[in-house]
Design a protein that fits this description.
Radius of gyration: 14 Å
Largest sheet: 7 strands, antiparallel
Helix content: 25-40%
Distance between the termini: 19 Å
């Protein structure tokens, strides 16, 4: 377990949902509610590899995070945390971090993955995002 102090970024790892804002090439922000978890001194996010946020992150690694509800609604007084995101595509990373999400979100995570597989008629390849200050 990490002994580093809990920074505003790492504190977001305790939230159920976080609004992750990525930026288009034009600079226009796009916010998406995501599951988030802490892994050591960083946060991790899981997403399909063909998602818009992954495409945007390939052009600009800057992100903003704010606590939100399941539907993405952010409280008026929610603090914004600036960070950088790295796309992790290695199967070992994806498998290890999937375990982190399975432990945090338990049954809900497993059900969501099954529903996604059924809806897509296949298991979508996933990537993980490592978010650091």
């Amino acid at each position: 377990m990490s002994t580093s102090p809990v920074t505003p970024l790492l504190a977001l790892g305790e939230e159920r949902f976080v609004s992750l804002t990525t930026f288009r090439k034009s600079g226009v922000p796009v916010s998406t509610p995501v599951w988030i978890a802490r892994e050591g001194d960083s946060l991790v996010v899981t997403t399909p590899d063909d998602s818009g946020k992954v495409k945007r992150l390939r052009n600009n690694t800057r992100v903003e995070l704010r606590p939100c509800n399941r539907m993405g609604a952010v409280a008026d007084d929610a603090a914004t945390v600036q960070a950088e995101a790295e796309i992790l595509t290695g199967s070992a990373d994806v498998q290890r971090i999937s375990g982190i999400f399975a432990r945090k979100y338990r049954f809900e995570y497993r059900v969501f993955m099954i529903i996604e597989r059924i809806a897509a008629r296949r298991q979508k390849p996933r990537v993980m995002l490592r978010v650091t200050a």
